[in-house]
Amino acid sequence: MKGWMTRFKAVMALTVMALILSGCGEPFLSTLQPRGEGAAMLLELIILSTVIMLFVFVVVMAIYIYVIIKFRQKKGQEDFIPKQTEGSHALETLWTVIPIILLLILAVPTVQYTFAFADVNTPEVSEEGEELDQIWIDVTGKQYWWHFEYEGLDVTTSQEIYIPTDRRVYLSMISDDVIHSFWVPSIQGKMDVNPTGNRNEMWLQADEEGVYWGKCAELCGPSHSLMDFKVIAVSPGEFEEWVEDMQGVTGEEEPETATAQAGQEIYEENCLSCHAVGSSPNKVGPNLTNFADRDKLAGVFDMTEENLFEWIDTKGEEMKPGNLMVDAPYDLNEEEINQVIEYLMTLSPSDVTPESADNGVYIDSDLSDLFPEEEEDADEESEEDDEVDEDEETDEETDENDEE
């Protein structure tokens, strides 16, 4: 009896601990605290599946306890054998049909949401009924970092995606090496990122400003758990400002201090072949256009000069095992590394940074300034339609005069 009580206490302690730990989590990295339409849909599925499981558990345990009490062995019945029931069609039908019904209840919304997450063809519509321009981002997964190119906007970055709130942003994803999985728990579900030209598409939407953590959810190598990135949701006006600032970067801007200028020369000689600054298509290594605005180095380490010095000096060999920078041919001394660091810390082209997502400032915009060509095309089409209508009216008037 004593041994049984000890085991019971241990099980109860583990159960209570599991319940407490399950409540731990941060809003920027929790599926239970959704901050976007996709995550809210997933939470509905989580709640539905949990309710179904609890229902099954309660029913089974109730029957189990009832049977134990009702049909327990009583005094004087040591040799009693109860009536054996075999081949009950009613019972077999019951425990076959009920699970099917429960699975259908769960399957229908799951299938609906799965197709909804991959629906990138249905355009968003404004309150006035006009179709909104789609923002597309080409996402490339690489061991062990993420690369982002904004289609049609001439903006390229890595490790951080800036998106406007209350607006869907569409992603076209592919891998340059192995299978990865793109996951931002607080605002959307997972999507595999495959190599060999197999692109997957999905959308993100953040309901409120914030910095949301993203993860690779597919084991992809030694530093899989360090393949983090950030989704920075800012107001539409701030997003528009950020895009315009990023578009203005050419990579040829000259720093103010002599040390940073020397660092730029060293960078161009040793680093530029892999790490682009500006909208260059080069993605051998992470794009560093807004490097100084990031609060994390390599996605996971605090952005300090000490960590940055160690990264450049050791090529991240121990900080991110398996990363390809260890094969880089450069060999810099301490002074040169410090000069490169000072240059890198000047790469801050915009006032819109991760801190902007938490400053409480909301700037509205319809983002139309980002798509001027499409606006012009629409105006030209409208003018052509008007001309066609005028020609048709003229032809009709001519026909009427001829008849007269």
TrEMBL record:
Q: Which GO terms describe its cellular component?
A: plasma membrane
- Membrane-crossing ranges are 41-69, 90-108
- EC number per UniProt: 7.1.1.9
Instruction: Identify the domain of life.
Output: Bacteria
What residues does the Cytochrome c domain cover? Answer: 258-348
Q: Which InterPro entries match?
A: CcO_II, CcO_II-like_C, Copper_CuA, Cupredoxin, CuRO_CcO_Caa3_II, Cyt_c-like_dom, Cyt_c-like_dom_sf, Cyt_c_oxidase_su2
Q: Where is the composition biased (Acidic residues)?
A: 371-404
* The record's free-text note on cofactor binding: Binds a copper A center.
By its UniProt entry, which Pfam families does this protein fall under?
A: COX2, COX2_TM, Cytochrom_C
UniProt family annotation: Belongs to the cytochrome c oxidase subunit 2 family.
This chain belongs to which protein, by name?
Answer: Cytochrome c oxidase subunit 2
Tell me the organism.
Alkalibacillus haloalkaliphilus
